[in-house]
Amino acid sequence: MTIERIILAVAGAFIMLSLALGWASSPVFHHEYWLFFTGFVGLNLFQSAFTGFCPLAIILKALGFKSATA
Fold it and tell me: Is the overall model pTM greater than 0.70, yes or no?
């Protein structure tokens, strides 16, 4: 699995989990403040599209994962 695919999978999982924890009608509802985490993940994805900076990519590269080749 490449770094890019892992980033997409982790971001998607974090968004779904934080929505489940923050949505009032969810069976695993915890608190509305989890929706701020959803916004944080979305904002990170948005800024990385323009700047190319992604903290998770740096961590994954240090762990030895390979980037996709074009």
Answer: yes
